[in-house]
Every structure is written in C-alpha cells, then in structure tokens.
Amino acid sequence: MKFLLVFDFDHTIIDENSDTWIVKCAPEKKLPNGLRNSYRPGHWTEYMGRVFVYLGDNGIKEDEMKRTMTTIPFTAGMVDLLGFIGENKELFDCIIVSDSNTVFIDWILKAADFHKVFDEVFTNPAAFSSTGYLTVQNFHAHRCEKCPKNLCKRKVLKEFLDKQLERGVSYTQIVYIGDGGNDLCPVMFLKKDDTAMPRQGYTLEKKISQLAQDLSPVECSVLAWSSAIDIMSYLKLLIKE
Length: 241
What we know:
It holds the Pfam family Put_Phosphatase. Its cofactor is Mg(2+). It is built from 10 helices and 8 strands. By secondary structure, it is α/β, with parallel strands linked by helices. The chain has a 6-stranded parallel beta sheet with strand order 3-2-1-6-7-8. A two-stranded antiparallel ribbon has the order 4-5.
C-alpha cells in the first residue's frame, strides 16, 4: 500500500511565486516596463530568461539571488505537513511538478532541509553560466493544446507512473496538491480512486467547480485546502483506512 503525492510548488509549497519573488533582487525591486510587458501567454520560461539576463546585466550574483529566494515563506501548515510526510516515507512517494526551475526549488528545499522528502522534482532546468548569469530552459516539448509551451504536467505525471510500473511500483491512490490553471490538465487525468486537492480560492479550484457546473466534472474526488494542516488531516485518514 503506497500513496503518490504530487505537489505543485509556487503558491502551494511556498506561499509566493518564486519567479516573481526574484524581482526583489532587481534595482529598486522592479523591472523596467518594456521587460515587464514582454511576456506572451504560454511563453513564461522565455520571459524569465529575459528577466535573468536583466538581473545579470545589473550585476546581481548567485549568492544574492540565493539569499533572496530562501526568505520566501512556506504556505501555512506546510512545514508540519512536509515533516509528517518525511516521517512516513515508507507510505508516501512524493514528487514536485512545477513551472519554477531547478535552481530555485533546490535552494528553497535544501535551506529548509526538505529535499529528502521528495523523490523527484520535475521542473524547468536552470543553471548559472560561466559569466554568472542564471539561464533557464523549457522542461520538455509536448503536443497538449491546454498547457504552456514548456510544460504539460499531465505528460510528466503519466510518464512518471509508466516508469514506476516498469519498476513494479503502483499506487493505491494519487493525491494531487496544487493551485494553478496548469494543474487542471493532470487533475483531469486522475481516476475515481484518486484525490485532487486544490488550494481554496485559487484558479485550480475555480476551474474544477466550473467543470462541475458545465456537467463535465473531473473523475477524481476533490477536497479543497486552505492550510496544509487540512492536507495532513486527509493523509492521516488515508493511513488509518
């Protein structure tokens, strides 16, 4: 009996968007209008690439970025939840699927000593160049019409499950914890024994309830959360059953 927990990162594990938080490093803590207005829907990663060039051009170094990123607060109750999962790793496999990047997630999880809780992190690959600029790439290519160009979370989840099956690992239940519009695609892939846990008042919850109103509800159970303590309570019930 093993459960798979799938977490989004921004506004789910941390209570902010890591990509917009980095702007605190910029001169006067803001971006020039031309750069800010250069974002095109579905092309966030390219936009962040330009932000990182701007930071590099302004002499913002890795250690300053790291210091800024590790001040991001975790979502209410999240520290307790991750501690609980860490103590029960024999029951839970735990992955992150995020539109952030490897450098940011790595910094934040390691600073709080939570990196051991997660078996794998699927996010946009990032690295510092020889000149000290942070660079980011698209996670993969995909054909999904609903998702941003760089990441289809359903594809990631499906490929992970296929790989686990080849290793002889299957899950009693998948619990998907997220908040954003790009979490809807993987939630629609979940089966009736699985559970989607959208963050209360955020886009994912609104999109799931819109589907129910349009009489095409998702197949899985839906349980909204406002504090990660709600998620922990649900996981404790699962273990008891």
